[in-house]
Amino acid sequence: MEHILAELNKTPDILGSCVVAEDGILVASDYSAQLDAELIGALISAIVRTAKMASEKMDAGEIKGLILEADKSKFFFARCKFGFLVVLTGSEANLGLIRVEIKNAAKKMEGLSL
Questions:
Q1: CB 47 within 8 A of CB 77
Q2: Where residue 108 falls among pLDDT bands split at 50, 70, 90?
């Protein structure tokens, strides 16, 4: 799985990526040294739980993905076989390109096992 994340991270503007299980466990990560992958995994889990609760209360169905935009960066969340694939980008990242690359990476993960 790490090789898929490493390949994904070669995409322009992607700063790092990880896979977080539904229960918040960090399955795999490829972030630069200055980021605490375990902390990011815990924070991502909290974001996903909140989004799931909101989706359930609004009867919107299962969450397929999320985009969190901040002043300095964006987080892209996409459902994958092992939970959620999460990608951190710069604030000016190309939304279309990033979404295509995330979809391709998630598809590659379908053939993997833990």
A1: yes
A2: very high
